[in-house]
Amino acid sequence: MADLPHCDTLLLNLDAGVLHITLNRPDSRNAMSLAMVHELRAVLESVRNDPAVRALVLRGAGGHFCAGGDIKDMAGARAKGHDAYRDLNRAFGALLEEAQAAPQVVVAVLEGAVLGGGFGLACVSDIAIAAEGCKFGLPETTLGILPAQIAPFVVKRVGLTQARRLALTAARFDGAEALRLGLVHYCESSENLDARLTEVLQQIRQCAPQANAQTKALLLASETEAMNALLDRAAEQFAAAVTGAEGVEGTMAFVQKRAPKWAQ
């Protein structure tokens, strides 16, 4: 098991192969500080090659997911000039890239404010569960700035037409609208959020960890890789999987009418 880094802005709890990561700056509605960005990236790196960690659950403390970037960090960067702003912004983009590419299944549990950077994190999750009363939005343009690192991920998640509307109006919307847009997969009452999360994690545990990691990478590659090359590589991976440890165990479990080892 990989060692988890010490964190001041996150709460970490590893339970039965699931790492629960809680954004823990409730006084600022879990606004994304540069320190939090660095800590999240360090956590992702620490578990990237750990097959014992099968899922990552992101949520926020104090009834909110994340209200966006930390204005105090932006004010601090002002004294350092253009390059400091660029580096601050790009660090968050790197976090989104790394979260999206994580071999684990990333589950976002969304409550309260899901704004700006929080919206971006929701967009890179594999499975998103929203409370009905969530307040989603991209408020950047109302501040005279751009959703610079978030925008490409929003387009991938909800499509260019809807992304243009949301970014260019800064419209706020709730969990039901997020479900309609395809931003989230489930919209629940606050009382049912944890029950839905438990159900989703049970489903994930039925899937072989390495097969899940390779399948996720294959799905993401379908957006950028040429089809012929992608299918050639996928065929090689399929053959390796069938003859590998997980494939053999899965086949034997099916024949013997039992659950495979990873689902027990």
UniProtKB/TrEMBL annotation:
This is Enoyl-CoA hydratase. InterPro entries: ClpP/crotonase-like_dom_sf, Enoyl-CoA_hydra/iso, Enoyl-CoA_hydra_C, Enoyl-CoA_Hydratase/Isomerase. It comes from the Bacteria. Pfam families: ECH_1 (PF00378). Belongs to the enoyl-CoA hydratase/isomerase family. GO terms for biological process: isoprenoid catabolic process. It comes from Pseudomonas flexibilis. GO terms for molecular function: catalytic activity.
